[in-house]
Amino acid sequence: MTTAKENKMGTWPENKLLLSMSVPIMISMLVQALYNVVDTYFVSLYAQTDGNAALGLAFPVQNLMIAVAVGSGVGVNALLSRSLGEKNFEKANKIAMQGVVLAFACYLLFLVVGLVGTAPIIHAQSTQQAVVDYAIQYLRICCVLSFGVFMQVIMERLLQATGRTVLSMVTQGAGAITNIILDPIMIFGLLGCPELGVAGAAYATVIGQMVAGLVGLLCNLLWNKDIILRLKNLIPDVRLLGQILFIGVPSIIMSSIGSVMTFSMNKILEPFVNGIGVAVFGVYFKLQSFVFMPVFGLNNGMVPIIAYNLGAKKRSRIIKTIKLSAIYASSIMAVGLLLFQALPQVLLGFFQADEATLQVGVPAFRIISLCFVFAGVSIVISSVCQAVGKSIYSMLVSIGRQLVVLVPAAFLLSLTGNVDRIWWAFPIAEVLSLFLCLLFLRQVLRKLDF
Predict the structure, then answer these.
(1) What is the pLDDT of residues 232-283, one digit of tens each?
(2) Where are the domains of the chain?
(3) Contacts 24+ apart (CB under 8 A), 434-443
(4) How far apart are CA 197 and CA 192, in angstroms?
(5) Could you tell me where the beta strands, DSSP code E, fall in 124-197?
């Protein structure tokens, strides 16, 4: 039977707790970022600029898939942590299994997308046949076999919500390492495997996700003592699913807006320099994950701390955790800013960038990265809003930044005919979103009246 002993999220010093919760997730997310980049690296060796552009066209749907998985996980994470803070262990057990129910429902949705939607989505973004063929091939495999990613994410969130972030790191690391090993083998046909090309990168990705999902399930069954995964709790509970979605849907919408943004940016950039703008944008998104993923990892460690102490009504711990998270996020993003400003040629060189790609990519990297520090603070504040059940604030910030400001600004700047000017839409949007985030944070803190 589950013990009522106080969880470390209510007792440990805030800085020690935040680091112990976040650092393992940050490491695992860096590994995740590494295998995303490795994917692109090997595809660029196989198909050069066409391969990079193809992965860029597939990215909006891949991002949507991750948005749905992670957004659902945010709802499970916050609700589960709050229930543990309230010492309601039976409810926590039910929430955990309802997360599995939700993961399966999400997979069915993307199975349909993979079977009937990939070609129209890719054709809507590009007319270059070689790029389109690669993109459809890659995306269809990722969607039809996506059940691994949904199981992986929900298992990681159960581990994170109960403070077992080292096991979460092991889960994600297992998938990432599997992907990295399989990429060259399946793309180039090594060790007796047939040469699968761009499709090989997709198969390596989904196999890695399946491995991670299985490892995560075993970690929860064997070592997560705060929750018990019972088959009887797999029966859909409309009330609990509604509570999970109430928190998670704004996060899903918020992240999904990123898919709309990348789809729109691909459309805006496609006419420039024979599609090189799309390839540069795709490479940028893979590389910037090395900067943003540690901040997302920091937030994944922060959310259950805030949610737990919200349930336990410990205001001072919530405030200190927010301040520490903002400081760490700003520091990480400042390092990223320096790298993108100083070494854009080196970063692009990893992906077989020719002279034309460098001419577009170097100014792009330097301009877009100006928004990094602002983005770090905004990400922390958005996650705070989600942790306290005000996900609507995060959604409004994301809509404002990416759809109301960024895409229209990029379109207007594209009318100048100069691709370099399009990139300025990113810092413009990020500065405006930071002001909105600060206003919402003020509202959230005022309501913590205990």
Answers:
(1) 989 999 999 998 888 888 778 777 888 889 899 999 998 887 778 888 998 8
(2) 8-446
(3) 434/374, 434/377, 434/378, 436/396, 436/397, 436/400, 437/377, 437/378, 437/381, 437/382, 437/397, 438/381, 440/381, 440/385, 440/390, 440/393, 440/396, 440/397, 441/322, 441/381, 441/384, 441/385, 443/390, 443/393
(4) 14
(5) none
